[in-house]
Specification:
alpha/beta, eight-stranded mixed beta sheet, 16 helices, 18% strand, elongated
């Protein structure tokens, strides 16, 4: 090595040392304390930790192996953690660290068509959810002054609901019945009917069997509904903590769309399992039990959830969030603890009857026990003109139906009410996955209320509905478009519909 090359290397080394010395001389070490707790007790989904004196309620804490939990009970000398993962992976003596963030969930359009868990982790093999915005799962409900009246209909596609128990955008309508009667079927049909209606749907499965949730997802895909739907799943195999936070996370996802000025629909399937999960957590946390061993705040956990559904004022964007919570009864006991709590929180209920289900009258909606506290305010004008007294007529029929079975000597007026009632019931029958468009519903209801169907046998009602549907796509196309636009049905249009439908139905009886 020559002298010149050696001097260059020495100069480079000196510069490196000089730069390093300068950085070290100007370096100011900053120390930030990190709180570390120690696991003292492990239960079924519950972990008790000593330490973490400054941890906040609902803060996420991290266990070794990227296992997480939520700070639930903040006590003097310990913290009770609800696990979102499996508590079997946690052992006494493990270190627990704070994360400094409240439990949240990703939100945004990137979630459309996805199946996720309550923490936003994908369950559909579709890769990581690419959402840049996150919302805490617990959020304040909109103030009274930020809410607007519920006056825009949410069409379910189910004639019995849209005509007799109308639901508005921003309403909370409870679906209640015994198990395996058709609660989820009502919810799925409602989602399917939102296609091309600019409605974002969120389906939240709480404690369901994986096979049941997979069937719902398959049905939504089959009928082209997953493109505008987000599915949030906490299965029966998940921890009680995951089942507890699931509806709150799903509501935050739906609120993003509401606050963006759009309309959203959320379905909780079901809140009976949610209440049982919270009861399990509360008993493990040694909170004082009350009626049926539920904790004293069982009403509050559902009220603070459902109050987040509303129709926002124009100043807040005008978006809406409609909630369809589902609750399961035992032996048709609608007066049980959790169902009565939810009935008092919601704006009405759709009651499914086990008796109608056993008789094969689908959907088995008990019109007498079902109610919507919004009523005709959430219906298009054509409904109010055509189906205004339909509920009263049907209620009279149900009262007289019992006498029909035991008496053959009925006066003419009673016989007329019974004949009309049988035809109304037949019109209200509807197979699953076959939502009926608004114009078709109006036409069929007009046919039954105007007496057009009185001259044909009940067995021919189905053929009459097919003939009426054909008219709406042909000769009555202009009137059908008027109905779909939400305009009031004029007397001339009404007379034209009755005349055309009478001729079409008369051909069936010939």
């Amino acid at each position: 090595m020559d002298e010149k090359t050696g001097s260059n290397i020495d100069g480079i080394v000196e510069d490196m040392f000089a730069n390093a010395y300068e950085r070290l001389r100007n370096y100011n070490a900053e120390f930030s304390p990190e709180e570390i707790g120690v696991v003292t007790q492990v239960g079924n989904g519950i972990v008790r930790v000593s330490g973490l004196p400054n941890v906040r309620a609902d803060e996420v804490v991290r266990f070794p192996g990227d296992n997480f939990g939520i700070a639930f009970n903040l006590e003097r000398d310990s913290v009770s953690i609800v696990m979102t993962g499996q508590s079997a992976r946690v052992e006494a003596g493990m270190e627990v660290r704070r994360t400094g963030r409240i439990i949240d969930v990703p939100v945004g359009d990137a979630l459309l068509g996805r199946v996720i868990d309550p923490l936003g982790a994908p369950l559909d093999n579709g890769g990581v959810v690419a959402a840049s915005t996150r919302y805490p799962i617990e959020r304040d409900c909109p103030a009274i002054m930020d809410r607007a009246p519920v006056n825009v209909p949410l069409q379910t596609g189910i004639i019995a609901v849209d005509a007799l128990i109308p639901i508005g955008r921003g309403q909370r309508e409870l679906i209640v019945s015994d198990r395996q009667i058709g609660k989820t079927a009502i919810a799925v049909d409602t989602i399917i009917n939102q296609r091309d209606k600019d409605m974002i749907c969120v389906y939240c499965a709480i404690g369901q069997q994986n096979s049941a949730t997979a069937k719902v997802i398959a049905d939504l895909k089959k009928h082209g509904a997953m493109g505008y739907t987000i599915v949030v799943v906490a299965s029966g195999d998940d921890s009680p903590g995951m089942n507890f936070i699931a509806p709150y996370a799903a509501t935050s996802i739906a609120e993003y769309f509401m606050e963006s000025g759009r309309d959203a629909l959320i379905i909780y399937d079901d809140l009976s399992r949610h209440a049982r999960s919270y009861r399990e957590l509360s008993l493990l946390l040694r909170r004082p039990p009350a009626r049926e061993a539920f904790p004293g705040d069982i009403f509050y956990i559902h009220s603070r959830l459902l109050e987040r559904a509303t129709h926002l004022s124009e100043e807040k964007g005008g978006g809406s969030l409609t909630a369809l919570p589902i609750v399961e009864t035992e032996s048709q006991n609608i007066a049980a603890y959790i169902p009565t709590n939810l009935v008092s929180i919601t704006d009405g209920q759709i009651y499914l009857s086990a008796k109608l289900f056993q008789e094969g009258k689908m959907p088995p909606i008990d019109i007498g026990r079902s109610v919507s506290r919004v009523g005709g305010k959430a219906q298009i004008p054509a409904y109010r003109d055509v189906a205004g007294d339909l509920r009263l007529t049907y209620s009279q029929f149900e009262e007289l139906e019992l006498f029909e079975r035991f008496s053959t000597r009925l006066d003419e007026g009673t016989r007329s009410v019974l004949d009309r009632g049988h035809r109304i019931r037949e019109v209200l029958k509807q197979p699953q996955y076959r939502p009926v468009p608004v114009a078709e519903q109006i036409a069929v209801l007009l046919a039954v209320t105007s007496g057009i169907l009185n001259d044909i046998a009940v067995e021919q009602i189905h053929d009459a509905k097919i003939a009426i549907t054909a008219l709406l796509t042909g000769e009555l196309g202009r009137i059908a478009e008027t109905i779909r636009s939400g305009k009031k049905l004029s007397p001339d249009d009404r007379d034209t519909m009755i005349s055309k439908m009478r001729d079409a139905v008369a051909s069936l009886g010939a």
